[in-house]
Amino acid sequence: MSLTTSATPPPGWYPDPSGERQWRVWTGTAWSAMTRSYGSAPDTRRVFDALPLLRALNRVARYGVVGVLGGLGLYVSVLSHWPGSAHPVPTWFAASAMALALTFFFVGSAAYAFAARELQGRWSLGALVPLVNVEVVNAQLTQRLGASPTRRVVSDTVLLVLFTLQFHQDPWLGVAPVLVALGQSFWLRAYLEQMLSGAKGSSVVP
Fold this sequence. Notes:
Layout: E1 12-15, E2 22-26, E3 31-37, H1 44-80, H2 91-120, H3 125-128, H4 132-144, H5 149-166, H6 175-200
């Protein structure tokens, strides 16, 4: 959902534009899934505190996972068929695909960097380094959901290293980034649902 008025209101709780008798959070750019039936006045301070993390995680869900893992997959695939290799692609295609892969990768990495910053509460070296920031976000989300971050980070890292180093010899390893992407999407969705349901049951909402 999005506003169609010329003046966009600031983030906060507003009557649900769908017509339902409830409040809904406007993030400043879009309507979120966070709602609450009419009642006491909203605690806007705590709503504002939660919005940066919600926005950062939504960007990871929309652009981060596909950007980083899709970009990495395309990059490794192009290298495996670079002009001069056993099964080369045309030079113009290799150059164009490589540029597209790097664009995807760095856009996705930026989404992960801001999410890592919000989850940690500060900027860190891990948040700024591509791929490392992916594992920082993974570890933070897994830990907050009560699972072992070490096991998850190690398994994802092993899959991506195997894919990067062995894909040219074992094309079936192309499933590795897909498995990692599915796992990341699952944990991200689970944490967002927990965050929203927790907010609905707390004084964050009216």
